Amino acid sequence: MLHQHKTLGEFINENQHAFKYTTGELSSLINSIRLAAKVVNHEVNKAGLVDITGAAGDVNVQGEAQQKLDVYANDRFIQTMINRNIVCGITSEEEDDFIVVNSKDKNHQNKYVVLIDPLDGSSNIDVNVSVGTIFSIYRRITPIGTPVTKEDFLQEGKHQVAAGYIIYGTSTMLVYSTGHGVNGFTLNPAIGTFYLSHPNMEFPEDGNIYSVNEGNYLEFPEGIKKYIKYCQQIEDDRPYTSRYIGSLASDFHRNMIKGGIYMYPKSTKNPEGKLRLLYECNPMAFLAEQANGKASDGYKRILDIKPTQLHQRVPFICGSRNMVDKAEEFMKQYS
Ligand code: AHG
Ligand code: MN
Ligand code: MN
């Protein structure tokens, strides 16, 4: 049946005209992410066979042990984008600082910066559970032709030009948005081609799945505790069912298809929350809004937060609109 589906390449070509004054630069950028995704997918698929599971021995700037696949995926995505000369700057969860691309070439015209979580859900690598990649794209705000600065990366999420994720799961998917809805593509590994399998993805307005690491329950803010109890009450369509993979991209993906809410609140252990605003929350919030869902820090819209640091963390509540509204109600009532 695959021949009935459009390929990602065809989709990108057809939709290029949707961007005003396009030079094809964004299309080429998505193409280079598609290529790196296939390479990383190939490596993830044989993870148990080659010596690529386990810790790499280093700790990233946020104090987290880097896995070998974290480092591999980081290098692949960054190298692909640098080799194709398609961006002016990159920042990654696995890098201490942002990377200036092409600063020596006075004529370079690249206008996009990429922010990336190269391997999301790393704790799942060694046990053959889905992991992902999350990316976010902005137009630079400093002048074209000059080296990028931190300001180019510290933009509010609402200024994203595109965002997406790849899931290396039972099948490998690339899901992304350029601000005209969300589309999902499934990789046919036999021929290495992504096909449009999930056009116009949308969160159901309501759902019955809640996804949260309940091991941290005792440390959660009162509003979240009360909301979790609400999810568990026997009333109307409740109790909701609980599903938590521990890979944001995969938890988000399931909830978008089935209807649900994902929460990573603050706790004593993670007083700012755990998830990173630039590499995880903003791209997912952009996709959520493009898919008729909602993303909040418990009180306000994620996409309105003005970042102050590259590795900033933030509490994150995201999913079906009515569910996120309800969680916000509890936060307000019990704060
Ligand atoms: P990463 O592997 O990029 O560090 O991200 C892991 C994130 C997110 O994907 C996941 O939902 C969450 O951390 C899991 O955290 P807990 O293990 O604390 O539940
Ligand atoms: Mn992550
Ligand atoms: Mn990661």
TrEMBL record:
Cofactor section: Mg(2+)
In the Enzyme Commission scheme, what number(s) does this protein have? 3.1.3.11
**Gene Ontology molecular function: any one:** fructose 1,6-bisphosphate 1-phosphatase activity
Could you say which residues bind Mg(2+) 1 here?
A: E93, D117, L119
Catalytic activity, reaction form: beta-D-fructose 1,6-bisphosphate + H2O = beta-D-fructose 6-phosphate + phosphate
Q: Which HAMAP family match?
A: FBPase_class1
What is this protein called in UniProt?
Answer: Fructose-1,6-bisphosphatase class 1
